[in-house]
Write a structure and sequence with these properties.
Layout (H helix, E strand, L loop, with lengths): L2 H31 L29 E10 L11 H18 L3 E8 L4 H9 L6 E4 L6 H6 L13 E10 L6 E2 L3 E7 L1 H9 L18
Parallel strand pairs: 1-2, 2-3
Antiparallel strand pairs: 1-4, 4-5, 4-6
């Protein structure tokens, strides 16, 4: 058999294969529409959230609330220490559990003292999910002004720092109103955060931690 004949035979086989595949698909679709052939169900699976990872609340609850506030910056060396993300993630899980045990709702708030909002959002992403984030405008960031420089809760202008805040949500007036924040605890700087964690993250509001959080 010549080379030309071989090529022609191969071409015909390929065409018959394509025709058979198309015919099979069409027939299967028609039979499936008539209920004579089951149509496979295609499911898309998203990657599951890491076991134990903090998940933001999906609804608001009126009444007392505990807010855990983390203030950091992508340009701050101490905010980028490798051990810090695990500390913050564990604190969010621990404090939420203790708040819920007392019948209080909980919110994790991330504040990035970055001039470029996108940079700050990427930085906060290293610390897991938050219920609310504020980023951009550097020291003029609304979260920094409120939780670092507010005249009632004024603290040290350093990053990183964490706060435990007591407040309340009221929805009786047709809209949600936030009661005045009361800073229960503030730990400014990596050393203070680590010392607090080693002690079990106690707060006057939530009581002493039931277990010591691994500071690694």
């Amino acid at each position: 058999m010549t080379t030309a004949q071989n090529m022609d035979t191969t071409r015909r086989r390929r065409n018959w294969t394509i025709l058979a595949l198309v015919t099979g698909v069409v027939v299967g679709f028609v039979l499936g529409r008539q209920g004579l052939l089951p149509i496979p169900e295609v499911r898309w699976h998203l990657p599951a959230r890491a076991a134990g990872e903090y998940a933001p609340a999906r609804s608001l609850s009126a009444g007392p609330e505990v807010a855990f506030v983390f203030v950091g910056s992508s340009t701050c060396g101490w905010s980028n220490v490798p051990e810090l993300p695990d500390l913050i993630k564990e604190l969010k899980r621990e404090l939420r559990q203790r708040a819920e045990n007392l019948g209080m709702s909980f919110a994790a708030v991330g504040v990035a003292r970055d001039m470029v909002a996108a940079d700050g959002i990427r930085h906060l992403g290293k610390f897991g999910d938050f219920d609310e984030v504020m980023s951009g405008r550097g020291w003029a960031n609304i979260g920094v002004l409120k939780y670092v420089y507010d005249e009632v809760s004024a603290g040290s202008g350093v990053t990183p720092q964490v706060l435990v805040v007591e407040r309340s949500l009221d929805d009786s007036g047709g809209h949600v109103a936030l009661g005045t924040d009361r800073v229960v605890l503030r730990r400014a700087g990596l050393d203070q955060i680590k010392q607090w964690v080693r002690a079990g993250a106690p707060t006057q509001l939530l009581g002493d931690g039931p277990r010591v959080i691994d500071s690694r």
